[in-house]
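Reply to dn_fold:

You asked what the input looked like. This is it:
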Amino acid sequence: MLVVSAYYMIPSKQPHAFYMGNIQRYFRFMKTRVIFYTSQDMFKRLSPYAGKNITFRIVEFKHLEVFKEFPKEFWERQIQRDPESYHTWQLGAIWANKKYFVSAAAKEFPDEWIMWMDAGCVRKETWAPFVDEFTRRRLPITPSVYAQVLNPFPKDVTFFKYPNVYVAGALILFHRSCIQDYINNYNTILKEYDANSVSATMDQYIMASVMNRYPRWIGVERMKLDIIDYLNTCPDPWFFFLAYF
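and this is what came back:
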């Protein structure tokens, strides 16, 4: 399994120092091969902390693939509708570009399974055992896109939105054969949110709508995982794939 992550110094939910600490911890604990997308400026800051398993790819923020179909004006429009005031248009663009980072890595490397992992996932030193074994515990049988479902969601909802949380988008597992379909489905939902004046900033709401509309995509629910006393062994519900895969 290949892990894909990215980090850009943009206006975010937390201070830059918060993410830098988490990324350094991520690099120290992670044993799996990682493709890490970032800017030239951030590469200079991050590379001293990276081991041989971390491969950097330089893509400047303004050149992200998402902007070809969803330009800056699209994301500024989403922020105007967004009830979560700490969000920024740059964050919305990065969240929507996750699937393109994964697609780019899949074109470069032959791995069958590719895990998207937010760069800030590794929040505590005590999570070292989870990250150390990450991606080496199990693989799904069915090719799909696997998401972290926090709560079972109703099937009759067209637009998931704040404050209801059903999916955590920090870790997403892709089978390479499903990536392009997922991109197409995701972008269709983005456009529908925008056309109906519903904010499309936050990826977890878009992901829930994709899973509702296109049942091919599988949500792995915490309460159904085959791990003994799982809720006590999981480091955090928002990052439970760290302990599962």
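The longest strand covers residues 167-175.
Hope that clears it up.
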